[in-house]
């Protein structure tokens, strides 16, 4: 791997880390808001509710992210396959076009003699 690829990979990892950290922080914030709606909870109960809510939300986010990654990989494979088909067709069309053009030039040359 060259240095620019290493840098791009490192930046992608950093971006992923920051996005996940934001997701975790958002889960904590929402857990706090949820617990605020239950004013009768003791401090310990509130902390338990927030901990469980946060863990649940993080697990849901993790499962959703995994599902999205799997689907993205499926789509990438399908698009790469389709791209290869289209590229082969374009190359074939170009070869036919060049051959036809060359044939027309040869025919014109032979007819002209």
What does this structure look like?
This protein is mainly α and 113 residues long. The protein has one domain. Helix content is 92%, strand content 0%. The chain has two helices and no strands. It has helices at residues 3-36, 43-112. Helix 1 runs antiparallel to helix 2. The longest helix has 70 residues, at 43-112. The mean pLDDT is 93.
The SSE order reads HH
Largest sheet: none
| Strands, total number | 0
* Count of runs of 4 or more consecutive helical residues: 2
Rg: 30 Å
The end-to-end span amounts to 59 Å
Please identify the structural class as seen in this structure. mainly alpha
What keyword list fits this structure?
mainly alpha, 2 helices, 113 residues
